[in-house]
């Protein structure tokens, strides 16, 4: 159990954060506290990556199993290399192509990061986020920050400070509010431990863009049990789920269910259907940016089921969105 604490919210400008305000958050982190901060994908729950005690607080606040390792956030490529036991050419090439950005690289770890942050694995996940607030914060702290998404375990990742407050308020020290995040779904997770590299979690930097830089292993669906350290963690089926049941259906079935209504809410794409549908934009970037906001919206309602119209065609950047929609809809209860 974590004791109840007062969670402070501080507001900063997303593009040009006021450093004197951010310094308050940096101080809390240096002292081993928990601070939620925005990245371009989702809000992260940050703590000193090198401190075993600080890292333990992340797991406690989120109720996250110790078998699920954290992502370590850095502000420079040089810092990333100090966290790696071995920095392969594929890591160098991908980092140079996509950092700062929504790409996390899994490499062999150095002993700078405590084993607990990596769930005892001999690898570490590293990312340089493309958000001025996140980068300025890491630089002010002067050390890498371990940060999973700032939501209770298995729940939907937060894209606003308000989402963080609702999920973790009273369990963390501070939230840095810089408005809604711009990208929306979590970073692509790519392991470069072996050759060829392997996508462990798809993101908005899609397969095609990654394969323009490095050779990639073929796709496999990986879902492992919660009880053992995970080779490709975070991929358990019940991740990314809102409270109501989610059903992913084709347009035809969607319209049919819409006619019948009752006890359901609807997430669709494109045109409005008489105000009965929560609409997301028809392009993958817009859809990704809005999806978790929609899930959080229905999390608060008393609806039992959300019907989601299948968007796009499950290729390119839509792959990451389909991945999250499938996980949300495969929750058994
Ligand atoms: O966009 C993002 O990646 C966000 C922001 C805050 O950076 N973070 C995020 O963290 O989504 P989290 O903890 O919710 O998801 C991290 C994923 C998990 O599936 C975890 O199991 C996996 O990365 N992971 C971490 N370390 C790993 C490792 N050494 N090997 C394989 N997977 C790892
Ligand atoms: Mg998460």
Write a brief caption for the model.
The model is unreliable at 224-230 (pLDDT under 50).
List keywords for this structure.
binds threonylcarbamoyladenylate; globular; 10 helices; 333 residues; alpha/beta; four-stranded parallel beta sheet; 14 strands
What does this protein look like?
With 333 residues, the chain is an alpha/beta fold. Helix content is 30%, strand content 19%. The protein is built from ten helices and 14 strands. The protein has helices spanning 19-30, 52-62, 77-83, 89-98, 132-141, 161-168, 207-211, 251-260, 284-299, 318-329; strands spanning 8-11, 35-38, 43-48, 71-73, 103-108, 123-127, 145-146, 174-177, 188-191, 198-201, 245-249, 264-269, 277-280, 305-309. The strands form two sheets. The chain has a ten-stranded mixed sheet with strand order 1-8-2-3-7-4-6-5-9-10, sandwiched between helices. It is globular and about 60 Å long. The protein starts with 7 loop residues before the first strand and ends with a helix. The model is unreliable at 224-230 (pLDDT under 50). The site of threonylcarbamoyladenylate has 30 residues, from β5, β6 and β10.
